[in-house]
Amino acid sequence: MEEFIIFVVGALVSGFGTIIGFGGGVFMVPILIIFFGYNIEIAIGATMSALVPASIIASVFNLRDRSIDYVVGSLIQFPAVAGTVLGAFLVAFLPVSELQVIFALFVLTVGFFMVKPQDKERIQRHSGMMYRIRRVPTSFIRKNRAKHIAYRLNGGLVSVFGFASGIIAGLFGIGGGFLQTPMMIKLFRIPPQIATSTSLFILVITSFTGFISHYLLGNVIWSRSLPLMAAFALGAIGGNMLKKRQGKMQDIEKLIGVGLLLAGAGVIINLLIKSNFGFSF
Asked: Residue 226 above 90 pLDDT?
């Protein structure tokens, strides 16, 4: 019975994570620990294993839909890898617990403002610091002819924020996907469909490397991982089917806001678990 409940919960988490571009790992790990009594290392190993097929399936759907921006994905992913290494190194020198509380409050605040109804006149802003930065000489225009959309990017700035998300991931021991998706949408005005698809493409790389790492550490127990892998795969298929029905940009942004609120709560739970057990997810 417990396995069936985990399967259903995993499918729902994966479906929601696919729609908002987070993947679902930041939600699933604390669920496995708190409600099902998983050891934290095994929970991480099982979730990392499940994210591999889910992210691949989602990316195949998005590849066929031509909604992945590989340039943006590369500009974020490669600096994020370097940032993760630096963040892990800084753990020994910074008050991580205090910073994690501040970070959780920041994520909750961003989530609140994404859920909060927006003034229609301010949805399309063509002023402000970020707007001017996106138009400096190092910026360029990305065109998606299949979707008939175009958006301006500053490659250097995207890489800087990718590096920063990597530092946060390495510093706090959490995935950077739930930071990268809202970052692409709110800071760089990348259309939500492109942002979520690109974030899931990045997750293919990060989840696979995480899976290999935890497999070598002995944290992948196949009897625990395989059912969750099947659940996440099913959830990814369902999430992509529902994703195609999302019409308005604001609807997706509100779902991402809900995801940030849940992620912020997950970061706080992570802090509580780490204070008791000495580990983080």
From this structure: yes
Contact status, residue 31 vs residue 270, Cβ threshold 8 Å: no
- Rounded-to-integer distance, Cα 226 and Cα 219, Å: 13
Q: Whole-prediction pTM value?
A: 0.81
The helix (H) or strand (E) run that includes residue 268 is helix 249-277
Query: Is residue 51 a contact partner of residue 203, using CB atoms and an 8 Å limit?
Result: yes
What mean pLDDT is reported for the chain? 82
Tokens of 42: 């095994």
Reply yes or no on whether the pLDDT at 122 is more than 60.
Answer: no
Range with the poorest average pLDDT among 62-66, 85-89, 153-157, 261-265: 85-89
Q: What's the whole-number mean pLDDT along residues 39-52?
A: 88
Q: Can you spell out the DSSP letters for 129-181?
A: HHHHHTTSTTEEEEEETTTTEEEEEEHHHHHHHHHHHHHHHHHHT--SHHHHH
245-270 pLDDT, tens per residue? 765 555 787 888 888 898 888 778 76
- DSSP element (H, E) containing 98: helix 96-115
Q: Check if the beta carbon of residue 174 is closer than 8 Å to that of residue 270.
A: yes
The helix-helix angle for 25-36 and 249-277 (nearest 10°) equals 50
DSSP 8-state symbol, 39? -
Neighbours of 268 (CB within 10 A): 18
Count of alpha carbons within 13 Å of 204, Cβ hemisphere only? 19
**In the beta sheet, which residues pair with residue 152?**
141
> Does residue 76 sit in helix, strand or coil?
helix
